[in-house]
Amino acid sequence: YHTQTNMNDFFRMSVDEARRELGSDTLRGLTQAAALERLAEFGSNQLVESKKKTYRELFFDQFKNFLIIILLIAALISVLIGEFIDGSFIMFIVLVNAFLGATQEIQAEREIRALKKMVLPTASVVRDNEIKKIPAAEVVPGDIIILEVGSAIPADARIVETANLKVEEAALTGESAAALKVATALEGEVPLAERSNMVFMGTAVVYGRGRAMVTATGMRTELGTIAHLVQSEK
Asked: Phi-psi bin for 76: left (phi > 0), alpha (psi -120 to 50), beta?
């Protein structure tokens, strides 16, 4: 099977093409041995948080910026030459900037925790031709996941079987209406919200049932991409 480097192309593939690409079996699923190998290769199916820092640490981190250092030097020079008002004004701006920067980073950490809560702790998958409930963190590329009303999607996946399946994707796409899912391949450049043969981590089934083949897990999912952007935003 191939790695997840071309995961964005799965919506253009037929079910058979996706199955071959992922080295999976749409009926029997993966063997437990194969799943363990993939778990070792791709890692746990979880959103990763950056190392937590205290508000005090985040506040002082703001002063490591090169431009802030220049402003601090300018403030010191202003005080030394007797321009106390200018020096005080520059210091005020620097302190406000540090306060706002630290506050925004704390908010980003809260958003990451909120994203992680969108992933339920368990998932139903086909392993060794049996439907099993496993920890969602152990879902791997190529797994066949069972989609039923009320179930949360544990990873990004290509639909392989559907019966009037509808998925609520508002948290990811902003669309309030549930999206009807199909198993047929799509053509051309298709926006995320219109990829009707894909389901995504953090969304939920609201109608019908189906099966899907996992194409991306953890931080490689669309939700993982959002989590990464939130954490890396300057």
From this structure: alpha
Long-range contacts of 9-15 (CB under 8 A, 24+ apart): 10/158, 10/198, 10/215, 11/158, 11/185, 11/186, 11/190, 11/195, 11/197, 11/198, 12/185, 12/186, 12/187, 13/158, 13/185, 14/184, 14/185, 15/158, 15/160, 15/183, 15/213
Measure CA of the first residue to CA of the last residue in the chain; give whole Å.
37
pTM here is 0.71
Q: What is the pLDDT along the chain (234 residues), one digit of tens a residue?
A: 444 445 568 999 999 999 999 999 988 999 999 999 999 999 999 887 666 667 777 777 888 888 888 888 888 888 888 888 888 888 888 888 888 887 777 776 676 666 555 566 789 999 999 999 999 989 999 999 999 998 889 999 999 999 999 999 987 887 878 999 999 999 988 888 899 999 999 898 999 999 999 999 988 998 888 877 766 655
Strand 130-135 with 122-127, pairing? antiparallel
Q: 154: closest CA among 196, 112, 210, 217?
A: 217
